[in-house]
Amino acid sequence: MKNVWEFLVKGGICMIPLFLCSVAGLAIVIEKFILLQRRKIIVPEVVSVLENIKGTNDFPLAVSICEKHHGPFANIIRSTLENHNLPREEIKETLLDQGRQEVHQLEKGLGVLETVAGIGPLLGLLGTVLGILKVFKVISVMGVGQATSLAAGISEALITTIAGLFIGIPALVAYNYFASRADALVLEIEKYSNRLLNKIASFPAASGK
């Protein structure tokens, strides 16, 4: 552990923002891994009650089930059920408005992860440039014979490059993975929402006609 710390310290000042980026990225990855589980978003109890809606008399039970489960899916379904007596187009507009808000919650934090993926390698490149600058400074003052001083500058350049790529590559992979998972969940929410909308439209007393 001590050797690792000494290795990172040799990277110079650019290791500080790189370390902060790694902490932020790891925090987002852990949060999204927990929150974007399908079972937590597409709540089985809500799906079950939706499948068993046979008429407007089933709406209060469905709303009560949704109120017990906080999340994008439950919130969208509850909002749709609570506005079931509106005309179809107004229900659809309400559904879209609620959907935009809930999708934002699903994607929250992904922007930070994308930024970490982009800025990590750039910070590594900055450290590389600073390390090379030190090398040229040593050469200009002491000549090319100072192998130890030259090695220190080159080492700093390589360490920051490695650290930047080590942070940026996993962050980019994680961002693409979680963005894809969020998109898949949004599509599934849309599927169930459209089914509910069609059911509501099929009940004359609730269609607003």
Keywords:
209 residues; mainly alpha
Please characterize this protein's 3D structure.
The chain has 209 residues and is mostly helical. The protein has one domain (10-201). Helices cover 82% and strands 0% of the residues. It has 9 helices and no strands. It has helices spanning 2-9, 15-35, 38-41, 44-51, 59-68, 72-82, 88-107, 110-142, 147-202. Helix 2 packs parallel to helix 9 (147-202) and helix 8 (110-142) packs antiparallel against helix 9. 29% of the residues are buried. The mean pLDDT is 83.
Oligomer: single chain
How far is the first residue's CA from the last residue's CA?
71 Å
Number of helical stretches of at least 4 residues: 9
Supply the helix-strand structural class. Answer: mainly alpha
Domains (count): 1
Calculate the mean pLDDT score and round it. 83
Give me the Rg, rounded: 27 Å
Helix content: over 70%
What composes the largest sheet? Answer: none
Order of helices and strands: HHHHHHHHH
Taken as a percent bin, the fraction of beta residues is under 5%
Q: Give me the count of strands.
A: 0
Shape: rod-shaped
